[in-house]
Design goal:
346 residues; alpha/beta; Rossmann fold; Topoisomerase I, domain 4; two-stranded antiparallel ribbon; 12 helices; 10 strands; 18% strand; flat
Length: 346
C-alpha cells in the first residue's frame, strides 16, 4: 500500500480525487482526516497535514527571561516539538502498514520542510519505508498525474534551508525581544516584541507616519476648461497649473472666454507590454488595491491553487506551467455570473 502526505486537507482531497478518478472514501482516525482510494490497482491513503506539524523552541530550562544569559541563548540547540499531536500519532501508527510514502506537499522550501517533518514520525513507525516525492506547481489533473508518474527524491537540503530560517527567526527574535524588554523594564504583557520581519516593517510604518504628520496642507485651485472640437469633447488645464491665490484664480475664471486656440500638438508613441502573470508580490499588490488584506488574498490564492484553478501562489516565477490549461480555466471562470461577460471576451 502507498501512503501520500499532503500539506492541507483540501489539497489532499484534490490529489485523492484525481488519482482515484473521483472514487474516494473520507475517513477519520485519532481525530485526524485521511482519504482512501485505489491507485493503479493498489490501495492508497492520503493523510493531510495542517501546514507545519512541529514548533521550533528552546528547551524549557531557558523559559525564564531574567535568569538566562542571552549570549548563551544564541548557541543553544533548539528543539522541534509536535504541534499537531493527533496527526503525528496517526503518521507514526499508520506507517507500519505501508511499503512506500510519497511526499506531496507544496513545491517550495516550506513545503519540503513540512514534508520532512512528516517523515520524522513516519520513519519512527517504519524505519525501512521507501520515500519518494511528487513535485508539482499546479493542481491541474495533468500536473498531478505527471508528478506521480515521475517521482523524485525528497530534497533534504532544501528542507534544512527552511528550518535554518525558522531557527534564525526564533533565536534573533527571542534574544532581542528579551534584551529590549529587560533593559526598558517592559515585562509581562507589556513586553516589547522584536522580529526579523516585524521590526523593519515597524520602522517603515513609523517613518511614513512621521512624514505624514510633518506634511503641511496647502490650499490650491485648478482651472479646467471643457472643450469640444468636431464633436469630440476634451479637457484642458490652465497653463499656470495650480493657483495658490484664490482671488487670482477667480479673476482668470471670470474672463469666461468663448473660444480656445490650439497652439501646439505634441504626440508620443507608447508601447504597452502585455501583463505578466502574477508573482507573489504583484498578486498581493493587485489584491490590496481592490480592498483585500494581504492575509485574505493569500488565503484565497492558496484555496484556488488547492482546487486546481491557479498555479502555486507563493512564487517569484512569472511563467505559467505548460500543463496549466488557461483556456479551460477561463471557461470554468465564465460559469460564474460576475465574470461571464469578461470570460467570453477573453
Amino acid at each position: 500500500m502507498k501512503l501520500i502526505v499532503s500539506e492541507k486537507s483540501i489539497a489532499g482531497k484534490r490529489i485523492a480525487e484525481i488519482l482515484g478518478k473521483g472514487k474516494i472514501k473520507t475517513l477519520s482516525e485519532r481525530n485526524a482526516q485521511l482519504f482512501e482510494f485505489d491507485f493503479n490497482g493498489e490501495k492508497a491513503f492520503v493523510i493531510p497535514l495542517r501546514g507545519h506539524i512541529q514548533d521550533v523552541d528552546f528547551p524549557k530550562k531557558y523559559n525564564y527571561w531574567t535568569g538566562t544569559d542571552l549570549r548563551q541563548l544564541t548557541k543553544v540547540k533548539v528543539e522541534y516539538l509536535p504541534s499537531e499531536k493527533n496527526i503525528t500519532a496517526l503518521l507514526e501508527k499508520k506507517a507500519k502498514e505501508f511499503s512506500e510514502v510519497i511526499i506531496a506537499t507544496d513545491a517550495d522550501r516550506e513545503g519540503e520542510s513540512i514534508g520532512v517533518e512528516a517523515l520524522d514520525y513516519i520513519k519512527k513507525g517504519n524505519p525501512k519505508i521507501e520515500i519518494k516525492r511528487a513535485l508539482f506547481s499546479a493542481m491541474a489533473k495533468k500536473d498531478i498525474d505527471d508528478s506521480f508518474s515521475k517521482l523524485i527524491k525528497v530534497d533534504f537540503a532544501l528542507a534544512e534551508s527552511a528550518n535554518a530560517r525558522r531557527e534564525i527567526d526564533l533565536i534573533w527574535g527571542a534574544v532581542l525581544t528579551r534584551f529590549i524588554s529587560i533593559v526598558s523594564n517592559k515585562m509581562g504583557k507589556e513586553f516589547l516584541s522584536v522580529g526579523r520581519v516585524q521590526s523593519p516593517v515597524l520602522y517603515l510604518i513609523v517613518k511614513r507616519e512621521k512624514e505624514r504628520k510633518a506634511f503641511k496642507i496647502e490650499a490650491y485651485w485648478e482651472l479646467k476648461a471643457l472643450l469640444e472640437k468636431d464633436k469630440i469633447k476634451f479637457e484642458a488645464m490652465h497653463k499656470k497649473g495650480r493657483f495658490k491665490d484664490k482671488k487670482e484664480a477667480e479673476k482668470v475664471l471670470n474672463k469666461k472666454p468663448k473660444k480656445a486656440k490650439v497652439l501646439r500638438v505634441h504626440k508620443t508613441h507608447r508601447t504597452i507590454s502585455k501583463p505578466l502573470p502574477f508573482n507573489t508580490t504583484s498578486f498581493l499588490r493587485a489584491a490590496t488595491s481592490i480592498g483585500f488584506s494581504a492575509g485574505q488574498a493569500m488565503s484565497i490564492g492558496e484555496s484556488l491553487y488547492q482546487q486546481g484553478y491557479i498555479s502555486y501562489p507563493r512564487t517569484d516565477n512569472t511563467k505559467y506551467p505548460p500543463t496549466l490549461n488557461l483556456r479551460e480555466l477561463v471557461q470554468e471562470t465564465g460559469k460564474t455570473k460576475e465574470f461571464s461577460v469578461l470570460a467570453q471576451k477573453l
